Amino acid sequence: MADRPELSVVVPAFNEEENIGPMAERLTAVLSGVGDGFEILFVDDGSTDATWDRIAALSRRDQRIRGLRFSRNFGHQAALTAGVAAARGEAVVIIDADLQDPPEVIPEMVARWREGAEVVYAQRERREGETWFKKATARWFYRTLRALTSVDIPVDTGDFRLMGPRAVAAFRALPEHNRFNRGLVSWIGFPQTAVRYHRQARAAGETKYPLRKMVRLAVDGLVGFSSVPLRLATVLGLAAAALAAAVVAAAVGLRAAGNGWAGQAAVVAAILFLGGVQLVTIGILGEYTGRILDEVRGRPLYIVRETTEEPGEPD
Questions:
Q1: Do 142 and 160 contact (CB within 8 A), yes or no?
Q2: Kind of pairing, strands 304-307 and 65-70?
Q3: 3-class SS of residue 105
Q4: What confidence tens digit (pLDDT) does each residue in 285-312 have?
Q5: Which of 40, 78, 161, 297 has the smallest CB count inside 10 Å?
């Protein structure tokens, strides 16, 4: 396109009405001194507050600001994917709307890209405004995931990153539904480098990643990039069989010695253990099977209700 900007900044947002204006203001100030043109693309992930109204108002005042709105809440990873698909820029930056990731890091990311890196990811040196539990579990998760997968997924790194044109094209070609996008960006390869930064406390509003969603994202990352859980199910099965054989032998020995009650307790313990192992194994298989079902259904990852260029009917 003749009017193609050099840089697109994709901002997924869900119920972030208080942060849309400050985010747009800071991004505009930062990007005005970087590169040959830019656009800011907000993706409203089915918000129930005034998030879309704020995006639409900003777009009317500044043509460099665009927005697209989902028909419902499809999730952060879907919103991120939609933004990258709709971005017009040569390079694409992904940043959340809560201002925990400072836009002022973007110029350094652009500089690394111009030096030859195709992907520049922001790596956290410090996390402010978060509980010790979230910090500890995040640290444990990233290191466990890296140890269990063959993909070099950098630790202490979220979705805040820049992707060059080759990485964007490769990312757009990935069709899977249960997405762990930071893992997918690592999987596509190309030269990748890090910039270090301090993550800030949320500017306003509440986190959109409670424990339930964090666990779901962790499962998506582990199942999507590792077959270790399947091998673990096999190991558990073999261990359970060996233990069951040992317990049965012990029960027979106790029975022969005249201690019937102890033998019965051993058999009950063996049955409960085997039942637990079977349920765990079924659960692991179910996670993988469920993902196969999602891919076979072929449903779209998201549905766009309207954009700032093509507004929908008023509510």
A1: no
A2: antiparallel
A3: helix
A4: 777 777 777 677 777 888 988 888 877 6
A5: 297
